[in-house]
Amino acid sequence: EAGVAQSPRYKIIEKRQSVAFWCNPISGHATLYWYQQILGQGPKLLIQFQNNGVVDDSQLPKDRFSAERLKGVDSTLKIQPAKLEDSAVYLCASSLSSPYNEQFFGPGTRLTVL
Amino acid sequence: AQSVTQLGSHVSVSEGALVLLRCNYSSSVPPYLFWYVQYPNQGLQLLLKYTSAATLVKGINGFEAEFKKSETSFHLTKPSAHMSDAAEYFCAVSLYNFNKFYFGSGTKLNVKP
User: Fold this and answer.
1) What pLDDT is attached to residue B61?
2) How far is A113 from chain B, CA to nearest CA, in Å?
3) How far apart are CA A113 and CA B17, in angstroms?
4) Using the beta-carbon criterion (under 8 Å), do A55 and B51 form an inter-chain contact?
5) pLDDT over 70 (residue B72)
6) What chain A residue is nearest to B106 in terms of C-alpha separation?
7) Residues 6+ apart with CB under 8 A from A35
8) What is the overall mean pLDDT for chain A?
9) CA proximity to A94, closest of A32, A24, A45, A6
10) What's the average model confidence in pLDDT over B85-93?
11) Other CB atoms closer than 10 Å to residue A52's CB: what's the count?
């Protein structure tokens, strides 16, 4: 079974530039999550999708971050414009639709904003 | 409000020694509890999970954890540390009524030869 795929793995941009990350979840997983993991901290949930609808985006900085999940499969997360404090690893995870099902994580995208 | 507290951001043990990583949670409803491990430059991998069945849960790589409701704890243990156990470990809680995870801040385990 293929795992969660993310691309790119690494990205370096200058502040005020735009960047986009892509995630392909495990086939059949209805729930998709984007997390931000700043160095030395645990993952922080940015947005949660159930199929192609948003369940929770309370911690997403909506003035600069956006995410979509078209057709309930792949998802993209965009930052526009980026700030220095956005430097982090962005993790995508997916799960079956149940609170006791574990989340499967992709390898992450390491973003460095200069 | 729900939260997860991991005591000790860094833990160092000798190879062959007991590993004990602490996790306490606060939740107004019965939670599901998870331990994940993260190796350098990799995503998180599930070690074990508690979903209201047996309170002692066995996971991969010889790890286990015990759910203690009275102490609101879910500590991770391994009888004998191996060099390959060096990684960062995250405790997470999920509420039974919706799919939302809260992660602790993580504990980095160092294993000395």
Assistant:
1) 93
2) 18
3) 41
4) no
5) yes
6) A42
7) A43, A44, A45, A46, A90, A91, A92, A93
8) 92
9) A32
10) 94
11) 14
Kindly state whether A58 is in contact with chain B, defined as any CB-CB distance less than 8 angstroms.
no
B contact test, residue of A24, A102, A110 with most B CBs within 10 A: A102
Query: What is the rounded average pLDDT for all residues in chain B?
Result: 89
pLDDT of the residue at B54: 82
The alpha carbon of residue A105 is apart from the nearest alpha carbon of chain B, in Å, by 6
Q: Which of A99, A104, A108 sits opposite B32 (nearest CB)?
A: A99
pLDDT higher than 80, residue B28: no
Distance from CA of A22 to the nearest CA of B (A): 15
> Tokens 């309370």, residue?
A58
pLDDT reported for residue A2: 81
Sign of CA dihedral B79, B80, B81, B82: negative
What is the SS3 assignment for B7?
A: coil
pLDDT at A74: 95
